[in-house]
Design a protein that fits this description.
about 130 residues; Ribosomal Protein S8, Chain: A, domain 1; Dna Ligase, domain 1; three-stranded antiparallel β-sheet; 3 helices; globular
Length: about 130
């Protein structure tokens, strides 16, 4: 039985945000690490740290909140699943919340935001939407 690590991580992040937690630990993979780096770069999380547990590894996310305790990350939704892969073409004008959110796409040149992919004229697998 295969486990969809992406959906596990996205659900864990949503639940941690709803509960108001400061940190969350998720299983490490190359794809999850690339997604977390984008979340930090775009300002949706404060920071992250890789922890060696002598197995697969763990990524500790430090969630970001406004001074009045509202989460900066409102929602994260998986688009492409193991059973139904969704791909976008290089000229696809899809924007998340009219440009207020980001889409994360896995391209031939790595994992990047939808804005970067459009700028580089690349398409790929549409992993998730974040706002």
């Amino acid at each position: 039985m295969s486990v969809d690590i992406r959906s596990e991580v996205f659900t864990a992040i949503r639940n941690a945000v709803k509960a108001g937690k400061e940190t969350i630990d998720v299983r490490k993979s190359k794809l999850i690490l690339a997604i977390v780096k984008i979340l930090k770069q775009e300002g949706y999380i404060r920071d992250f740290r890789e922890i060696d547990d002598q197995r697969q590894g763990i990524i500790r996310l430090y969630l970001k909140y406004t001074p009045d305790k509202k989460s900066v990350l409102t929602d994260i939704q998986q688009v492409s699943t193991p059973g139904r892969r969704i791909y976008v073409k290089k000229d696809d004008p899809t924007k998340v919340l009219s440009g207020y959110g980001i889409g994360i796409i896995s391209t031939s040149q790595g994992v990047m935001t939808d804005r970067e992919a459009r700028k580089l004229n690349l398409g790929g697998e549409y992993i998730c939407k974040v706002w």
